[in-house]
Amino acid sequence: MCDTRRRTKPTRCSRCGTAPGRACTEADLFAACSTHYFTANPWPDDWRAIRDPEQRLERALDELYAYYEHTESMLSNVLRDAELVDVARDAVAPLESYLEDAAEILTVGRQVRGRRRQLVRGALRHALAFSTWHSLATNGIGRSDAAKLTAVLVQAAATPHRRPPTSSQPSSAASSPA
């Protein structure tokens, strides 16, 4: 039961914020803890003001990977649990929303449309994912190198590539006289 019953003038539960007399549910506790944790550990936002898309991307990744370094133990556990427990999945919804918003902002200023835009968004979501940073970090790649490496992935997704000639197209060497 919520701890408000022990107070002389109950207002809200100090653990989960529920009304007096109402039992704290697991979902209430997860929500309260998540709100507290994300308030104490705010997401990095300094990168948002940078106009140049490449500089903004590099700064965003460096700041986000620093955040992941700082919050690794908690995020590892919560993201693991979110795969199996509905209330944990709900608890990480604000993080997922932040990452989706970050991907949208990091797409701004890139001259990409259609399929190329889809590739850039996919590369951005991959670069921003905790699992990407965690994999690189556990393989001995430091934050700065990890940010540069994933920035190159996004840049490659944004760059149109010329296709090599197919075998049905004659190459210039084959058509020139010997």
Protein described:
This protein is mostly helical and 178 residues long. It has a domain at 46-158. Helices cover 62% and strands 0% of the residues. The chain has helices at 26-40, 53-82, 86-91, 93-107, 114-128, 130-138, 143-158, 172-175.
Strand residues, percent? under 5%
Helix and strand element order? HHHHHHHH
Taken from the alpha-carbon principal axes, the silhouette is elongated
Percent helix: 55-70%
The DSSP helix count reads 8
Mean pLDDT equals 84
DSSP summary, beta strand count: 0
Distance between the first and last residues' Cα = 91 Å
How would a textbook summarize the main sheet?
Answer: none
**How does the helix and strand content classify structurally?**
mainly alpha
Computed CA radius of gyration, to the nearest angstrom: 24 Å
Low-confidence stretches: 1-7
